[in-house]
# Entry
Amino acid sequence: MSVKISDIGKAVLETEYAVRGPIVARAQELERDGRAVIYCNIGNPQALGQAPLSWTRRILALCEYPTLAIEAPGSFPTDAVAAARALLAGSKHGIGAYSESKGLKVVRDAVASFITRRDGIAADPDAIFLTDGASKGVQAALRLMLAGPDDGIMIPIPQYPLYSATITMYEGRQVGYYLDEERDWAVSRELLENAIAGAKEAGVRTKAIVVINPGNPTGSVLRPDNVKMVIDFAKKHGLAILADEVYQDNVYRDGERFESFAKAMAELGEKDVSLFSFHSTSKGFLGECGQRGGYMEVRNVTPDVMAQILKMQSVSLCANLPGQAAMYSLVSPPPPDGPSKAEYDGERAAILGELKARARLLADGLNAIPGFRCNEVAGAMYAFPRLTLPAGRTDEEWCMALLEKTGICVVPGSGFGQLPGTAHFRTTILPPREKLAEVVKAIAAFNAEYR
# Structure
């Protein structure tokens, strides 16, 4: 007997993921029919022309095919060869074999050293879990938190749909807290308190709060005092913190800097709030989405809880090994005196400098369109502009019409959540500058006609 839709669980049927929803499906249909489509719906840098870092790809090549260093002597810089050999020695059996469930110790040691360099604080390699992209770490943390149908997770509105989709899949409750668009999408203590009070009245037992910094889809960067405020809020209400920090290298606005929750908690001397921090090889300047490399660092949990996290990881055996190697390349850049250092610094600076220029171009261009308002893209890879629509029209209808008319694929704000009565869409800053200028021009022309 074939499986029918009536056989599918309610949680699966109710799960939605707007980033690859019906508008993207229609874009793919148009592309198959020969239409040119510009995909601005997802943070997929290499699909939009970003070149991979030489450092990363050399390490991956040498790990996949170790005899390359012998068969092609002199073709690889000595520091890349040394990095690959360190990885292979740490793996014992190469990257075609399973690692321990937490991931290769050599990579976890490198991640711990990276956190110490970044924040000036100690990090425990045994509290680091290597994952298939940050998404798998997020899903593991949410699975851990959601013990029953009345358990809730606070998520920002707007949010990245991974969170709403996973909470729905795990049959938990979403507790949305609005970000303050008028104050650069800041996290407001008042709005946090309103959200958790409303959840309590509805019978929800709120377990954790998710914070995305830099913000997806908002392009915001939280200030250090805002980060510390969230920690104080979490402590007051007995919440764990899930810190999505995958865009930590993507900070463009002058005077802004990334502040990790781990660093802020160390400065506060906070040991009572559990923290799950996530990072990825997909974003930043690396852009290695297809490698599916990520990590989850856990702080302030008891040994018995840590054992349960390890058990969950063990069910999947381990994260994929090429992704672990890519993560090693991210957290272990070339040594200062290595032959790859100058090239690495140049490639990194070029990518981040180009993204900064695109962030400015996109925000300025959108703000010049009548009926549009876009906060400055201070970080991450996206803009989330507000637009004024004709009466009776929705942002989904606008985005679909934009696709049909121009071939530009963006995601309606309703897929991320937004203040009632407002309309937005999310677009990436990833197309090359000349292409991005064409996108802005096409949106302006389309919107004038649509209005």
